[in-house]
Structures are given as structure tokens and as C-alpha cells.
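Exercise 7.
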Amino acid sequence: GPCTECSCSSGKETDKNTSNTKKKENGDQSFIPKIFFGTRTHKQISQITRELKRTAYSSVPMTILSSRDYTCIHPVVSSSVSNRNEMCVELLEGKHGKSCLYYHGVHKLSEHHALQSAHRIYHAWDIEDLVSLGKKLHACAYFAARELMVGADIVFCPYNYLLDPQIRESMEINLKGQVVILDEAHNIEDCARESVSYSVTESQLRATREELDFMVNNNIRQKDHEPLRAVCCSLT
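Solution. The predicted structure, written as C-alpha cells, is:
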């Protein structure tokens, strides 16, 4: 049967639940950790959620953190090959007098899942399910998944969402006191290396060197720009 420790509880109050209620009545907040489940690829998340559906924990509130490449449903932004993040930010900031209709409908998705949970018809889902529902409700799946993280007991995401400090900060992920599970953890070394690596083309290096030449020749912060120019020259 369902366990009594998390959100899939059948509703029967245990001794622990009673003590937690007493703590809240006294003003103390009991802390229930989230489970952050990291995988190497998005495809593996699909496999795990499919298995989760077959268990007694299928009704536990969950979410899947993913990039805009997998979740954006805006017809113009999603069709872009290279700069989806930048185009999304521009729409959110209202540049060029345009905004994102789908972002303003995020609450439709989060409320839909809340309604499912209230009627006990909530079950494990995949990112494709959320995107499909987002298209139906005209709501952004990317930001909806982030909102669902607040009430989720299990959060699925790729490794780098947990290992890369910049992504953790941007996604507002706090791992202190939480449970972290890393599937196929032997791949973490490669992921950590990628997180602190950056790729540039030769043409980008040459363009950068030209800009730095201009800075140095016009006496613009020479002490800062000369070492950078030297690095570009050595790399090219």
C-alpha cells in the first residue's frame, strides 16, 4: 500500500504525522526534504518517469527541469536553432514591444496539476506530456516546470542542473538538506569537465583580437586588455 511518510499517503494519520502537526501548532516548521534525481540525458528521465508510473509512488508530486530546447512552445522562439534563450529573455523583458503570451499562461498549467492532485488523479508524467498540455492550454511548459518544483517531492533533471553552480542559481535550486540521487554516477566526471569548459571558434578568436587591438590602440584600459589580447594571439 501507499507509504505514510510523503504526499502519496492514504490520509491515515500516523504517530509521526501527529507529532508534525503538534510541531506546526507550536510554531515549529518541520522540514521535509525533496529528492533531486539527476540523469545524464533527457531520454533517461523519460525512462525513469515511465518506471515511476508503475510504482506505488506514481501519485507523488514531481516535476522535470529541462532546457527551452525541450519545453519552449512559442512558435517563433522554438523554431530558432541557436538563440532560444536570448529570444525568450527579450520577450520577457518586453523588448521590441512584444511579450510572450505563453509565459502569461503559466498558472494554467500549475493550477491544472494542483487540481489533479486534489482529486487524487495525479500521476507521474514525462516532459512531453507537459509540453503537450502546455500547447493545449497555451501555457509555457518551461516556467511551469520550475513553478511545480516548489510543491514537488521529486525533481528530475540532467546532471548539470545539480553540478553547475550557475545553473543551480538561475534555476533557484538549493540542495542544502535535500536528497540527491545521481543515476549512472560514473558519467559525472565528464559533466563536471563540461561545466567548466567553453568552446570558441577560430573566427571568434580573431574577431575578439581585433576588438582588443582597437581597445589597446585607443588607450582604453590597456592594462586589462593587453593580457587578454596576448591570450587570443597565443590561442590563434
